[in-house]
Each structure stands twice: as structure tokens, then as C-alpha cells.
Amino acid sequence: MSESSTQNFPFQKFHFIGLGLIGGSIAKAVRKTQPDAVINVYARHPEKLCHALSDKVVNRVNGSITDIDKDTDVIFLCAPTGANIKNLENIKKYISGINPHVLITDVGSVKGDIQNAVDDMGLSASFLGGHPMTGKEKTGYESADAAILENAYYILTPSKETGAEFTERFSEFVKQIHSIPLCAAPKEHDFATAAISHLPHLIAASLVKTVKDHDSSDEFMKTIAAGGFKDITRIASSDPSMWENICRSNTENIRVLLRDYIRELEKTDAVLASGDFDKINELFKESGAYRASMPEKGRGPIPPIFRIYVDIPDESGAIAGIATLLAKYDISIMNTGITHNREQAEGALYIEFYDENAMNKAIPIVKEAGYKLIF
């Protein structure tokens, strides 16, 4: 990297407290964008980050939370919200001895609790809340990938006390790791994420439980569950501890929206009872139009699926043939499976990829090999 590009990078020295999926992905994005950056990490179990050292993403893993270099530019809080607050309390008295221009930020999906704690600690001028709206179904540093930040919205939640220069510099940092910065007040952020992420996760979990509770002893419902049901409920498989923490931190916003959603379901139930199916048509028409107006580009808080469906012959070696074909072009497959219930004309074989680039590369290869893709 040239000296000019190094100087243009907003920050040079980073300190991460915790390094899971999101923190690890940010660290990898920093290393990829700015090879000369210094990235130090505190972890309760340093031995778990041996891979982060061996692949040279981080420079040092510390066993003490207060071991922070004095010339650190940015401190990233990358634990769950409650733990972030405790960690910040533990380092508060040491911050005065660090670079007076140090920026403190977090990556949590709920901003109200930590902003209130920061205000109480008198650190508001140095704190800028952050939420990269991306993720994977697997957690931990071993699943971290800089690519998940590409085209992801990165919400910044400055308070009235946050230094304007911090917001400006960090916005530039977000752009350089290929995310899209957006600013919102902490309250606005928490209500919005309750609607588009937290409530949907609860709904998915409740819907799966409803099916489970009504399934027969031979699990007929589970047997025939296909793409449609599995797609809208896959987030029910998310980390239970993480979602308990989120629901604990954003309870009131979730409850407001949950009660509104329950009222919508009750309205739908009343319409079904009345037999006024024109209103059902209107419901799907209105909802479909709003969903169609959502932007295709950019990532949201719910991880996308990169999947294709292939109509394959029912013969021995058919699946292995496609796997071998893709391996020939160095395309890694994350998951495959047979769809016996072909809802919406889905193919018999589905193939999931780790990212969009791999999926887009695979599509023409599969087509040119004579396989029929079903969209």
C-alpha cells in the first residue's frame, strides 16, 4: 500500500475487546484494506484466538482487559450489550491515559442501553454507537469474513455529545471497509431494528413452535415442510443466548410492535371468519407492493441465503457430478439437499454457497453443463 493511501485511512491503531463474528469480520476488513494497521485484541480466553494470530489478522492478543496501548485510535466493544457495558466500566479509569482523541464504539444491535451507560460514565463525547447490519447463522471468529460487510448498512448512532469529527472520520472508515454508513438516533435505531429484525426472529421461533405443537406423532408436518416454510423460519435457528440478550435489551420496543402484530393477526382472523376474501387479496397486494419496493442492493440484519435450485435426473451419481463440476472451478459449496416437496416449482436439488460471488460464478457453469435451473 502506498504512503498516501496509508495516510488517507482514518485510523491506524485498533483495540478490540472481544472478537467474535462481527468484530472478527471488521478486523479482517481492516487488515485487508490497511495491511499496516495495528490490531490488538483482549479476549477472556486468548487461546481461542490462535488462528487470528496465525493468519496475521491481529498483532497481539492480550489476557488483561486494561492492557491498552496509549496511542490507540479506536476501541471496539464487540461483546453482547450487557458485557460491553461491564467491559467499558472496567476500562473507564484507564481511558484518560490513552490517546485523548481515542474513539470508543460498539457493534451491538441495541443502542439505548449502552448509550445510557456511556452517558452515566461521562464518556459521551468519545463514544459513537455502531451496528453493522450483517451476520451469519454461525458465530465466532472462525466464521468471520470481511465479505459480509460489503454493501452492508452500518448504522451509526451519535449522541448530541459525540464529537462531529468522530462521526465524520468513522463514516469514512465504514466506507473504506466497503460498508454503507447511515446515521440514526439511538431510539430510532432500536425501534427500527425491533421491527425488521428482533420481532421477525420471535415470530419465526413462535411459528416453528406452533407447527411442532400441532405435528402428528409420525411428524408428517416436518416431513413435508419445504422451501417456503423453511425459508421464512430459518432464523428460528439463531443463537438462543444472543437472542435472549437482545430481547432483554430491547424489550419495550419489541413489545410495542408485537402487540401491533397480534392486532393485525386478529384482524386477519376476523376477515377469514367473515368470508371477505377480497380483503385477503388486498392484504397480499399491499404487502407485496411494499416488499417489492425494498432495495435489492445492500445487506440487512438477517443474513441472506445464496442458493440455487437444479432439476437433476433421478440417477446414481447425479449430485456428485454437480459437486465435482463446481469443485473443478474452485467453487466451494456450503450445503446441499434434496427438496422432495417442489413448492413454487423448486428443483429437486438445492445448492447453497458461502457468498453471492460464488453463487453468481456457479450459475453459468451449471447451465452450460446442461442442467436446468429453476428460479
Question: What labels would you give this structure?
Answer:
375 residues; alpha/beta; Rossmann fold; 6-phosphogluconate dehydrogenase C-terminal fold; Alpha-Beta Plaits; four-stranded antiparallel beta sheet; 47% helix; 14% strand
Give an account of the 3D structure.
- This protein has three domains: 10-184, 3-Layer(aba) Sandwich (Rossmann fold), CATH 3.40.50; 190-292, 6-phosphogluconate dehydrogenase C-terminal fold (Orthogonal Bundle); 307-373, Alpha-Beta Plaits (2-Layer Sandwich).
- Helix content is 47%, strand content 14%.
- It has 14 helices and twelve strands.
- It has helices at residues 3-8, 21-33, 50-54, 81-95, 112-121, 164-176, 186-214, 220-224, 227-233, 240-249, 251-274, 277-292, 318-328, 356-368; strands at 13-17, 38-42, 60-62, 74-77, 103-106, 127-132, 153-157, 180-183, 307-311, 333-338, 349-353, 372-373.
- The longest helix is centred in the middle third of the chain and has 29 residues, at 186-214.
- It is globular, with a radius of gyration of 23 Å.
